Amino acid sequence: MPRGSGKVNLVDVARQAGVSLATASRVLNGSTRSVGAELRERVRQAAAKLDYSPSAPAQAMARGGTDVVGLVVPDISDPYFSTIAASIVRNAEPHGLIITLASTERRFEREAEYVASLRSQQARGIVLVGSRTTNEEQLEALRAELEAYTTAGGRAAAIGQHKLPADTVIVENRSGARALAEELVALGYRRFAVLAGPADLLTARDRLVGFREGLRRHGVEVAARDVINGEFTRDGGYEAASELLERGREPECVFAVNDVMAVGALSAFRDRGVRLPDELAVAGFDDIASLRDVWPSLTTVRIPLERLGEQALGFLLDEPAERSRTRRFRGEVVVRASTPPLR
Amino acid sequence: MPRGSGKVNLVDVARQAGVSLATASRVLNGSTRSVGAELRERVRQAAAKLDYSPSAPAQAMARGGTDVVGLVVPDISDPYFSTIAASIVRNAEPHGLIITLASTERRFEREAEYVASLRSQQARGIVLVGSRTTNEEQLEALRAELEAYTTAGGRAAAIGQHKLPADTVIVENRSGARALAEELVALGYRRFAVLAGPADLLTARDRLVGFREGLRRHGVEVAARDVINGEFTRDGGYEAASELLERGREPECVFAVNDVMAVGALSAFRDRGVRLPDELAVAGFDDIASLRDVWPSLTTVRIPLERLGEQALGFLLDEPAERSRTRRFRGEVVVRASTPPLR
DNA sequence: AGCTCTTTGGAAAACGCTTTCCTAATTGCT
DNA sequence: AGCAATTAGGAAAGCGTTTTCCAAAGAGCT
To answer: HTH lacI-type domain: which residues (chains A, B) (predicted)?
Structure first.
């Protein structure tokens, strides 16, 4: 039942309770200093009666810091990132942290802007979720901002992005893709095509490299014209798959470097009348939960997405280390219906 | 290239530029008051040289407000909500708004807490994305918080939640479900089952009600035992579908009140050996983009999710109205492969 | 040349807290 | 009973901005 009159501040509460500002503050923020039971009660009552709500900005000023953690992702509507975001939000809540969300729409240059904004907000920490990496100039700008942020006392963690001045959480894309490749070879596949995502995306590149490594161990190669770049999205997958068919290539198995692209490819193939999975096998990467119901169910590499976010937040909450830390997570190959044993 | 020494504030900038604090402030925040070209330049240089970053909390205090907009959703990893979130983030950015994200994990009582937190943060606006509605007590608590928030000058908008003291964006669930039902009848279906989501969720209930209305127009009923409640999630759909089969019911078509449940049901049916879509048709609701690639592709009702977020934000940015406004969006039936004409 | 208007710059108040520094009062000793 | 040590409350100094209020200087008149 709110009292409707203007803003109520601590002074009002103190006056109402008949105590000093200092006492009111001490009662309300559970400070170390003790306050007599009687006054404590009076203050509590007054605050309740006036429906007092402390001003977070004022507290931030006085305390010299906030409980804000900034989360910067390339695209919050992509299930890969929204899963990570969910785990971060979930884990942040019990610590009383407030999450600020920025979605860069996969425009890398905005990451630096957001970091700057977060510094201005006096955010306590930043979690940066992986993005492009090849443009050295932009990367340098980002590094500079991060540096400025951390020297100002902020904590930074990155997911899937090496070489940043921050604690980082890494997915072992390369070894995961390697293992997947070997599994596919074991299933009998020899002729592969890869929907490789953007050429300048580290994650995508690592997966391609690992995949080729795995094949090569068994003497299998994938020609350059069987590798198609495209956006790291569902539509990117659809288009790359269409392009593949148009080139007249006839692989036995298509590896899309992430699940989102893989399901796009599934539709593309189906739209062209390809009978899945018998005529063509498809594999993905990530094991996105909300995509587990597609048919044929995707063979993929499971990444512990929730743990990624958890760990990144853990870094922020830990004591700062002198050198930046790295935590690696492995993927696990999951074989499903989209890649039946060949023949 | 950050300067590494402690925090730099406006006073430092002013001193470096040899001007007063007031002048520095005026230059840096593009105030109305004009400042001579020479001083302006000196201040700019000083700020750049010191890598000055204004303190957002201090600005909030002095200005008496922030550029924060709070977004409260039931579950950010659900594509329905992450799509809305994405549209809000995207539209907020050009206005210089900062989005704070709270995910209640579908625990309704936390909405009120988050609103309280947002009031404390002096957030400029709140977008509350639909949740339960039947517990009058909790609803009252939420109303009280919202009331307190708005009388303190904040703006509130709700999506899919009526009867809140806020501008609201409504999806016409009922008419959408009605149209879907009629379409299904036209395709020849007569025996239906419904995976109805949680009984206390308004959205779910409206869809069920509308669906029945549509059927009734053609003299078709769906018995109570063919309506199965469950969680509004993928697993909820899977379980409800399993339950349906265990009951030995043999509908011709199953309507899941949202797509996420529908794809869960798809898997459940497939796991039990039901041949889709010929043996059993399935329809959903929402037309979630990332689920468009499932097979059989879902017949569903398309909701303009992006527009929902856009409109909610629009309400926040508009001049406040004396009475709270409502904007309704209609859904559009989309028939796909999961409901082939019967026979 | 003597006025009154504009500009332009600075001093200082205000925003709402937290926390240090005092002071008064109580407690625990001897 | 007298003193040190502890406890509880208040006054006031920040925290980093924005913005009002003044004053000085220059511009435009007659």
So the answer is: 8-63
* Residue in B86, B145, B267 closest to A293 by CB: B267
Residue B100 · residue B323 · CB < 8 Å: no
A273 conformational bin, left if phi > 0, alpha if psi -120 to 50, beta if neither: left
pLDDT digits (tens, 9 = 90+) for A99-146: 999 999 998 889 999 999 999 999 999 999 987 666 788 889 999 999
Q: What is the pLDDT of residues B143-167, one digit of tens each?
A: 999 999 999 999 999 999 778 999 9
Domain boundaries, chain A: 10-54, 65-171+306-330, 173-302
Q: The sheet that has B227-229: what strands, in order across it?
A: B227-229, B192-197, B253-256, B281-283
Q: Which residues contact A40 (CB under 8 A, 6 or more apart)?
A: A27
Q: CB-CB: which of B98, B102, B122 is closest to A56?
A: B122
Strands, E assignment, chain A: 68-73, 98-103, 125-129, 155-159, 167-171, 192-197, 227-229, 253-256, 281-283, 300-302, 326-329, 332-334
Tally of CA atoms within 13 A in the half-sphere of B141 that contains its CB: 14
Give B307: exposed, middle or buried? Use CB within 10 Å, 0-12, 13-18, 19+.
middle
C-alpha B11/C-alpha A334 separation (Å) is 59
Q: What is the tens place of the pLDDT at every residue in B59-99?
A: 999 999 999 999 999 999 999 999 999 999 999 999 999 99
Who contacts B189 (Cβ-Cβ below 8 Å, separation ≥6)?
A: B252, B253, B281, B339, B342
Return phi, psi of residue A100, to 5°: -105, 130
User: What's the confidence (pLDDT) of residue A132?
Assistant: 66
The answer to whether strand C lies under 7 Å from the CB of residue A340 is: no
Are the beta carbons of A308 and A84 closer than 8 angstroms? yes
Mind giving me the DSSP string for A250-261?
--SEEEESSHHH
Q: Count of CB contacts below 8 A, A vs B?
A: 165
Closest CA to B82 of A198, A235, A101, A107: A101
In this predicted structure, what is the pLDDT of residue B36? 81
State which fold the B66-171+306-331 domain adopts. Answer: Rossmann fold (3.40.50)
Segment B3-29 shows an average pLDDT of 87
- From the options 3.40.50.80, 3.40.50.2300, 3.30.870.10, 3.40.109.10, give the CATH code of A65-171+306-330: 3.40.50.2300
The pLDDT of residue B6 is 66
Residues of A in contact with B71 (CB under 8 A): 101
**Strand D close to B184 by CB, under 7 A:** no
B51: CB within 7 A of chain D nucleic strand: no
Q: In sequence order, what are the beta bridge partners of B72? A: B102, B128
Backbone angles phi, psi at B299, to 5 degrees: -75, 135
Residues 67-86 of B with CB under 8 A from A: 68, 71, 75-77, 79, 82-83, 85-86
Q: How many CB atoms lie within 10 A of CB B4?
A: 11
> What average pLDDT does range B252-272 have in this prediction?
96
Spans of chain A, pLDDT less than 70: 1-6, 30-31, 132-134
Measured distance CA(A109)–CA(B315) in Å, rounded:
30
Sequence-ordered list of residues with C-beta below 8 angstroms from that of B216, at least 6 positions apart, any chain: none
Q: What is the CATH number of domain B173-302?
A: 3.40.50.2300
Identical topology for domains B66-171+306-331 and B173-302: yes
Considering all CA atoms of chain B, what is the largest pairwise distance in Å, rounded to the nearest integer?
86
Residue B22, CB, strand D, below 7 Å: yes
